[in-house]
Amino acid sequence: MSTETEENGKEALKAEIKELKEKLISMQQPLREKGLPIIVLVEGWAAAGKGSLINELISEIDPRFYNVVSPVIKSENEERYPFLYPYASVIPENGKIMFYDSGWMEAVVRKYMRREITKDVYKQRVRSVNEFERQLRDGGYLILKLFVDISAKEQKKRIRDLLEDGNTEWRVSDDDIWQHKEYELFKEAYDKFMGKTNDTVPWHVLDGGNKKKAVRDAFKLLTGMIEKGLKNGKYNGDPFKEDFPLIKMPELKDVDLSAVISDEEYDKELKKYQNKLRDLHNVIYRKKIPVVLCYEGWDAAGKGGNIRRIAKPLDPRGFDVKPIASPEPHELARQYLWRFWTRLPRSGHICIFDRTWYGRVMVERLEGYCTEKDWKRAYNEINEFERQLTDWGAVVIKFWIQIDSDTQLERFTARQNTPEKQWKITEEDWRNREKWDQYEVAVNEMLQKTSTENAPWYIIESNDKKYARIRTLKILTEALEKACEEHTVRNL
Predict the structure, then answer these.
(1) Which CATH superfamily is domain 252-490 in?
(2) CATH tag, 3-232
(3) What DSSP designation does 170 have?
(4) What pLDDT, in 10s, does the model give residues 171-196?
(5) Which of 117, 221, 344, 475 has the most CB atoms around its CB within 10 Å?
(6) CA 95 to CA 62: how far, in whole Å?
(7) Continuous H helices in 240-321
(8) Buried b vs exposed e over 166-194: b needs ≥16 C-beta within 10 Å?
(9) Domain boundaries, the chain
(10) Separation CA 184–CA 190 (nearest Å)
(11) Is the pTM of this model over 0.85?
């Protein structure tokens, strides 16, 4: 190719990039108006130019409507949160764009290559990635996955150039040098990962050896995806069902609520199980076992008092209670599980959720806050989310606090007639009571479809609040004892 022809080609490429940038500028306002959230994942080889590519892509975007994150890949023994936490906790709001400078692909491949995770854990994480991407896609997210490819020869040259400059040598890590030395093994690992995570959201490989061409191609892919999204609107995926191993649950109407406990027995058992729980809290902290307790139940069933009896013996530095109210605007503007990802405990800590992600299949379902597709899809999404937590090593226990309609009425009336308790009763509580039968149908379906072997539901008979407190303490302490024993065996 002559020099003149080459120059003409470069000029044509520049002109094309300029045109695509202008196209992206024109899409920003419609994108915000349509409320389309976008994730751009940029993966690739060390020194392939991922950072400069992102810099080109964001150059013409209003800085109020995008973010760039570079999640740190920590060694496995330093991780304190689930594998997907660094990515799921920063997903963008509707109408905004999030660029990931490396992400879940690099994290999985590097840790597998370092032998920090086993083959079985690798498979779990690949499955989690596919679930994560599908959930986001089905919830209306546009996702673009790019891999910036360069040859071993080109990588060697770029790494050498970076190391020879005192201002850029810091950009080359020991891991980058190791990756180059094992280029063929990494190439095989990247290809394998992309092959296993290509069905829901496809990968696009860019030629990083030609930086301008890579920029042009990335702009084409991004503007093309947005153009399609603006035309079609938010995608709302059909319900997806996986066969999780489920525990058969009784209908609420068949639960015997006659159990009671004497005051003397209650005091004795409360002291016994709170002492056990205090000791177990020290063990799970030392062994870094995370615990997620989920409370759902009828209004006035006694959730608050139940939670207080569990919290009392715990070290306040090692647990949190997360009361979940109606979502705030910034929470509504993201996929519904986001506000729970961001509230998860660190390993060794306990998180008690007073109301949970199950609002999706109860109040949101019945009050019309989401579509029928949304809540029908949620059963499987929730099972996947909880499996990701237990894959991480968390103990997940879910309590449904059960009372009958007559008991609720008595408690509502007592609250209404007691000045110091009137704050506990609202007009919304009375409105929800009118829908008791509808809620019972929804709760029964929820219990049947989401009581999995790894994250079971326990129906707690709470007409006698004291009996309910002892039962939850007993279930919790037994589950933690089992987890501590299994953790010891697993690490022998």
Answers:
(1) P-loop containing nucleotide triphosphate hydrolases (3.40.50.300)
(2) 3.40.50.300
(3) G
(4) 999 999 999 999 999 999 999 999 99
(5) 344
(6) 12
(7) 263-286, 303-311
(8) eeeeeebeeebeebbeebeebeebbeebb
(9) 3-232, 252-490
(10) 10
(11) yes
